[in-house]
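The freezer alarm interrupted the setup, so I double-checked each line after restarting. Inputs confirmed:
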Amino acid sequence: MIEVRKLSHRYGPVHAVRELSFRVQKGQVLGLLGPNGAGKSTTMRAVVGLLTPTSGQVLLGGQELSADSAAARALLGYLPEQVPLYLELTVEEFIGFAGQARGLSGAALRSAVDQAIERCGLGEMRRRLIGYCSRGYRQRTGLAQALVADPPVLVLDEPTVGLDPRQVAGIRDMIEEIAKDKAVILSTHILPEASRLCDRVLILNRGRCVADDTPAALSRALGERPRLKLVATPFEQVRQQLQALEHVQLAQAQQQDSSFEIELGPGIDAAALVSALVGSGCAVSEIRPERMGLEDVFLELVAREEQA
Amino acid sequence: MSTTGAVFRRELRSASRQPVVWFVSGAFLTLHAIFFTQLMQAYSQNSVSILSGTLKMQDFTLLDRVVRPLLVADTFILLLLLPALVMRQLAEEWRSGTSDLLLTWPLTESGIVLGKFLASLLVTALMILAASLYVVWAGFFVPIEWPGFLLGQFGLLLYASSVLALSLCASSGTDNPAIAFALSFMGLLAMIVAGQWAASAGEPWDAVLKLLSFSGHVGSFGFGEFRLSSAVWLLGLTLLFLFMATKIIGRRRWTWPGKAGR
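Predicted 3D structure, all chains:
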């Protein structure tokens, strides 16, 4: 449904995006992750037709996106990062305008507006001027305009930024619901959000794709060195022991709860580690494998890329 | 065309809730009323001259003494006010980021420009219509040549359309409404003043400046004369600026960093 082929873009001498290619099928949510300046916004703007890439192609539903590609843009619903709205219109009028701009009229328009309002939980606000709505309702209004014509492609740029936790949960539930029959690209800085909503994540750094897989597969791929969480006392003695042991790398130590995060090399396993600690007089109260979250994967990949 | 209609309806809806639109309309009607009252007072006082025989009745028509001077005053009032009416139309879209939405919807650039232009033209036409009621009211008491009056109003509307198109063009190139206002005001002023410069300029510049001047073209309508060349000139100017606005949007859409990118 969305196909990006060898997308590259330069701002003068700076490469914002380099040779980026990916596909998003119907029913799939692709998360676009990366630190600031990674090329996410450039990629998003190229995908929605707001930027001509230096090279490469963007296809929506098989049609190339270009200045005169109204047909390709008709497939698209876009929620920009800072939702721009006409504050002097009511919620209903604005969503109606978005529907009319997409060619809806008459009964079809009214029905589409009603559905979008209901889907986004804007029933009570429909006749309120957008200028008087809270940030959460404005975000929902932005989402409703993207959904009003039921487009098969959705591009959502930081949809939960600046919302309170309850609003965030509401927007995430909504995205989960609407993503079932659409191809969605979601740009976010919030990694738990990407873990929850995305079937696939594409991690960008300095304009390059450094990873493209499911969050689980990325965690597995980077978890080749088993990482353990260990709780043992006394803190100082355990730390000295861990530093002294061969094939054990101490990643983190917290004195508060006397916990440690360690990585084991090939020459030692968990049982041998516990024996060594107990043998030296330490008391081990907990040991368990630590799964690598998307946040760890992200940081690890970006760090590797920076080192390279 | 339906998408032009969508933009047109949205613009009208927004216009009805924007203080600047009410201010411009109110200011136009007030200034028009002031000029009309003064001209009518002068007209009434001078009627004594007719009774004393120093002026002939045919030199003293409402068209000559009130409608035509009023038309000249209106061109200056609109020169000041119409850029204020239009300055936000595209500049505000760029500034607030709503241009990102418009340009990702299946709207054409020409549809956006045309929808906005037609909405502002309708608001202006209603203003001119409301203002013309003063003269219509006077026509109940004093004989008036209606064809000449209507032709003058038609010329004023053609002039207003070219002013709106130029202002819309200025608004398309910036995200600051104040800059859009200043650009269009300076452009319009130059076109008005070109007529004055033409008188003192030697050949061939006098002809060129006359051609560029608004006053030469609008004036003919005021004198009850329908000049096809003037109508074509004003319409051509309107189309030229609308075309330029479309091209500017087309160019900016691919280079504008967006609200978040600034």
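Quick read of the result. Residues 2-217 of chain A form a domain with the Rossmann fold fold (CATH 3.40.50.300).
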